[in-house]
Amino acid sequence: MFDALLTDRETQLRLLRFLAVGGGTALVQVAVLRALKPRCGETWAFSISWVVSTTTHYFANRYWALPSSRHDAVQQAGEYLFAVALSYLINLGAFKLLRNRFKLSTTWATLGAIPPSTIVVFLILNFRVFGK
Predict the structure, then answer these.
(1) Full-model pTM
(2) 50-70 pLDDT, tens per residue?
(3) Helices 9-40 & 106-124, crossing angle to 10 degrees?
(4) How many separate domains does the chain show?
(5) How far apart are the C-alpha atoms of 45 and 38, rounded to whole Å?
């Protein structure tokens, strides 16, 4: 089944766009974080930058990377928030594992936590939330 997903041209294109959106929204988060950190402190800056980047991620995926013809926008947004929460839990679990068990630095543990959640979230968003 997974082989069929990887050979489907539309799925490949959607995956590439999804990865581009992810990279772009990471840049958005870093830019907003850096702009706000001197003004409101690290915790508030991180929180605000996360909300801005997550909102950017939703709209970029919804209308460009994973275009959807669904008309139930409220339910779709709720499903997206579920996927984001699941992504956070996977990221946090992987981060803790990499920090505590493998003793990686904060930066490497953060980078190492991205791939597992990316795979899960792409599958959820592509085939459910923003699916046809």
Answers:
(1) 0.76
(2) 889 889 999 999 999 999 888
(3) 130
(4) 2
(5) 9
